[in-house]
Amino acid sequence: MEHSSGEVLLMRRVSSRRKPKSTAVHKRAGRKAHKSAVVASIPRRRPVGSFYVVGLGASAGGLEALRSFFAAVPAKSGVAFVVIQHLAPTYRSRMVELLATHTTVPVSQIEDGVTIRPDHVYVIPPGKWVKIFHGRLFLSDPEKRAPILPIDYFFRSLAEDCGELAIGIALSGTGSDATLGVRAIKEAGGTVMVQDEGSAKFSAMPDSAGATGLADYVLPPAEMARELLLFIRHPLVAHAKDAAFKVGETTMQKIVSLIHEQTGIDFTSYKQSTVARRIQRRIGIAQLANPEDYLELLEQSPQEVAMLGRDLLINVTRFFRDGEVFDVLRGEILPALLKRAAARKALRIWVPGCATGEEAYSIAMLVQEFVTARGEKWDVKIFATDVDKVSIEYAGRGLYPKSIAADVGPELLARFFVQESGALRICPEIRKQVVFARHNILHDPPFTKVDLISCRNLLIYLRADAQRKVMALLHFALQPGGYLLLGTSEAIGDRDNVFETVNAKMRIFQKRGDSRAHIEDAVSRVPTAAGSLDGGRGSASRERVPRAKNGRKKIWETISARLMAEFATTCLVLNEKYEILHSFGQPQRFLTVHPGRASLNVLKLVPRALSLALSGALRRAAKEQQTVGYSRIPLPGRGRGRTLDLKVEPLAAESDEPRTMLVFLQEPQAARAAAKIHQFNPSSESIRRIADLEDELERAKEKLQATTEDEETTHQELQAANEELLAGNEELQSSNEELESVNEELTTLNTEYQQKISELIVSNNDLENVLRTSDVATIFLDAALCLRRFTPAVTRIIPLQLHDIGRPLANFAHPLIAAIAEDLPRVAAGGEAIVRTVETVYGVWHLVRITSYRREGASDCGLVVTILDVSELRRAESNSEERKLSGK
User: Fold this and answer.
1) Three-state secondary structure along 788-831?
2) Confidence of residue 188 (pLDDT cuts 50, 70, 90)
């Protein structure tokens, strides 16, 4: 790619400062010293046939921020600006006049259908909402009872109409307007700027927009303007449409590796064109020359790595996105699913790539509406997964700005949300149905037996091979007859033989048959675990399966060896709960199944006479971890003197395997001579068992006593806390009464102020009419002797314009002003009023009167200069004097 001399100059300057002292992109040393020179050196070019459109959203305290911003914007920036501010609908706005005095860019109020042009500022009129469509601005009346969110409304249309050429700026204000709008701009590939907390008079609105983590810049307004110009005039940004931006293979691999190392997310399967565009934009923001320089920045700045990773993830969504899809879901899909699952009364839904959770909660609300209408209790589980940890944590909190009211109906808001700290939190009824987990769909095991999968706007960012793999996994995860929702720009590809199209426009499909024959290639290295929520621990799961099998194999090999050593005596394999896992020999000789509820506990199956000895042997073997045996245990039966030999042996197991016990039962004559077995003595064994039980009882008493003392202490602490809460509640009630009283006073005061404002408006209108109809030329100056106002008659004497307001009067070259230049400071300093006659040109005389500007109840501030044309009077006086002289 060839570059102009200006571009080469920029690259040299940027390269000379690409090694920052700090890791923060916008705080690098020496950057401010170069900015004015860099802006001047960059050629003023923009993408061919188009230009950037900047939307500025402001509310309370926004006027000062707008003034600072536009004061730093040159007359020819090549950018169009649209100002959206919260304005009272019943009052005339002076925003156009107020901004016009602080910028050289033409400012005008938006007219319906106006075509937007660069190097212009368009201001929203009061009581209207604005949207941009095909480069034209259209006005509309806000819906009744709708939330007041004009900034979100415009930002969304800006994102849709301008795409990557959209720039959204959130300035000072209250509430959460602009939050959803910046998400839409970011999703479209645009740029987001947010005013920093230190410079904002009211930081709630910019803080809410910044909390999304999508802001490219967080700066004061004046610095925003400079950064904006640097960004749009950067060669890689200004010429983005001229040629495809390419990143070298090695550089791309290193960048992807850095992101994976810091975030754990591998973007290798993403479309390289998408990754390259995001890198190109970040290079423009960082004001670097090429991908190699940007790689150096990434190696030094973990913050920039995180920002690039978030840019690539594009975690943007909203409640009930694409309303037509949810209409079909409500009208067709969910009723069919509930009918099919009526017998089991359970639904499993999976939302991969859930971002911040809005879509998962939207589906949960629809399902809950149906379940409530049926009057039934259903087990609904919605698995919402995403690879981004930050988004999953945000979704898990379930706390969203009030601006979501633009997407969620009032009935759903009232039913499924509760207000909390100026925001809206999803209710527990819905929250408990949604399980959020970190999960990489390309590497982690898929969920199974799912009734519905909503995987929208995920496939479009993946390569073709990754898309095929994901489609195979989604097909495998669905139950036969399950439904799949894709994004409006996505398709099932070559999977039409296993999916039936339900709604082609809405991209809704239904699984046709079994998937086992179609997923072997896609999941050959991916384990399948129903309901797995390990969030990235798939490799560990793969390792546990063979290890568990090998462990069990070793156990059974050991068991077989021991059985052979015991000459095929009866053997029972028990777990830690003394339940029979396996048996060998002739267990029916010693075990009896009793009436009632079935149990595999060996102590309930052996004869009562054997139970005492077996119980003691099991306890001793587990405690001492060695073999315990008893001989000649008497058994009831037909033959007198029938006895049995017993041996219990704990079986060694690996650390992650459950403990196992072997119980050997054999007739005395079958016992091996080598075995060391003690003769069973019921009396001594009973005494030992009683002693063990007494020890256990004593320990239980001590533990109970400690627990009782802890409960008493806790009870006392709770009583103290309760008393403090009662006292605090009384104080709050008292404070509430005081606040109510103050509120009433403020309401009264506000009413008085409204009345005063109305009177001032009438007085101001009267004054405007007096000045307009007066034929006396009058100039009002402020304390600095700058123009504050003038009557129309002045323009017949001195050629003043409205945009001259604010300029010093002494700056104007005019004979009359030059004649009174020395008088003005004297009167302003408290001198007496001055009246003098001035001849501006030959034969033209003016009577000038200079007086102080009087203020009721305050000191004088400024001057009032009145000018009267007395040329006729002077000529009459001159003629009179000539006649007198001629008469003499």
Assistant:
1) EEECHHHHHCCCCCHHHCCCEHHHCCCHHHHHHCCHHHHHHCCC
2) confident
The structure tokens 């970040």 sit at 282
Residue range 285-309, pLDDT digits in tens:
888 888 888 888 888 888 888 888 8
User: For 364, left (φ over 0), alpha (ψ -120 to 50), or beta?
Assistant: alpha
Average confidence (pLDDT) over 756-771: 80
Q: Is the dihedral of CA 788, 789, 795, 798 positive or negative?
A: negative
Reference 156, options 55, 22, 80, 8; nearest CA is: 55
What residues contact 499, with CB distance under 8 A and at least 6 apart?
475, 484, 492, 509, 510, 511, 512
Q: Quick one: pLDDT at residue 545?
A: 44
Question: Rounded to a whole number, what is the distance in angstroms from the first to the last CA of the chain?
Answer: 94
Which string of DSSP letters, residue by residue, matches 266-314?
--TTB-HHHHHHHHHHHHHHHT-SSHHHHHHHHHH-HHHHHHHHHHHH-
Residues carrying an active site annotation: 59, 86, 177
- Tens digit of pLDDT for each residue in 239-249? 655 556 778 88
Q: How many percent of the chain have pLDDT more than 90?
A: 15
Pairing of strands 217-219, 191-195: parallel
Distances (CA, A) of 803 to 103, 122, 797, 800: 10, 18, 17, 8
pLDDT digit string, tens, across residues 62-104: 888 898 899 889 988 889 999 998 877 776 777 888 888 888 8
CB neighbourhood size of 515 (10 A):
20
Dist. CA 36–CA 53, nearest whole Å = 22
| pLDDT given at position 495 | 77
Q: Is 341 exposed, middle or buried (0-12, 13-18, 19+ CB in 10 A)?
A: middle
**pLDDT at res. 359:** 92
With CA atoms as reference, report the closest residue to 168 among 153, 187, 181: 181
Residue 140: in which H helix or E strand, if any?
strand 136-140
Check: CB of residue 111 under 8 Å from CB of residue 130: no
140: left (phi over 0), alpha (psi -120 to 50) or beta: beta
Helices H, strands E: what count in the chain?
A: 27, 31
